């Protein structure tokens, strides 16, 4: 297994999530400070403040961007002029908090949810991904998934992958031309005790994921291939590894989001967020 090192490029945030490279900048959600920010070199700029915890991010062809609000279980659309409107209501599908999101070039959006009350002490149980079609229709994706989290599409354009945080696996669906997902299956089983969170895909078909809730040696970023072989790792140095994304001018920089917190601190809204970068010798898609 190859081990890579990372360099911190930004710190002093709350609880960071959902890194996305778009329009020459890194976009991030901050759960606890309730805003979406961009990072451009050393410049941090607030893009929107919400009365909720923002999570998944995505971008539409008209120049607007979408953000998931976790507790209201909504997707908001922020137009280029800053106008905020409700884009989709996920409450008929999302059980517990809504979470990460993937938005494709065709305008399809997929949103995960916890599936249970994490803070209330409930046991994990299956739920469904929500698929928002380009016309705004919200429908459940067939297939029981356990805390669907980070998502991506492999280089073939047909294989949709999703991290199941409380099921120790990366799962897959077949994606049709109309954006519908079928043929749910395990793509990569992960070691016992792993909790995959955010993920991204490289041009060689590997999936990079964050193993969250662990500030020990297993709390790190990993690259896994279909079938479960782990090929690369990046230590998170005593923080929670939360999410990752390829970006930069040549799409060859891996951005890593880490948070210094614990379960007890997390439920009290205490965290310090960091952004790192790593050169892993691969490119995103």
Question: How is this structure best summarized?
Answer:
With 285 residues, the chain is mainly β. It contains one helix and 25 strands. The strands form six sheets. It has a five-stranded mixed beta sheet with strand order 1-22-21-20-19, with no helix packed on it. A four-stranded antiparallel beta sheet has the order 2-25-24-23, with no helix packed on it.
Tally of distinct domains: 1
- Mind describing the biggest β-sheet? 5 strands, mixed
What is the CATH superfamily classification?
A: TolB, C-terminal domain
- Biggest sheet: strand arrangement: 1-22-21-20-19
Notable traits:
285 residues, mainly beta, five-stranded mixed beta sheet, 1% helix, 6-blade_b-propeller_TolB-like, metal-binding, metal ion binding, hydrolase activity, SMP-30
Strand-helix topology:
Elements: E1 2-3, E2 7-13, E3 16-22, E4 25-30, E5 35-40, E6 43-49, E7 54-59, E8 65-69, E9 74-78, E10 84-89, E11 98-103, E12 109-113, E13 130-132, E14 138-140, E15 148-153, E16 159-164, E17 169-175, E18 181-189, E19 196-201, E20 207-211, E21 220-224, E22 230-235, E23 240-247, E24 253-260, H1 263-266, E25 272-278
Parallel strand pairs: 1-22
Antiparallel strand pairs: 2-25, 3-4, 4-5, 5-6, 7-8, 8-9, 9-10, 11-12, 12-13, 13-14, 15-16, 16-17, 17-18, 19-20, 20-21, 21-22, 23-24, 24-25
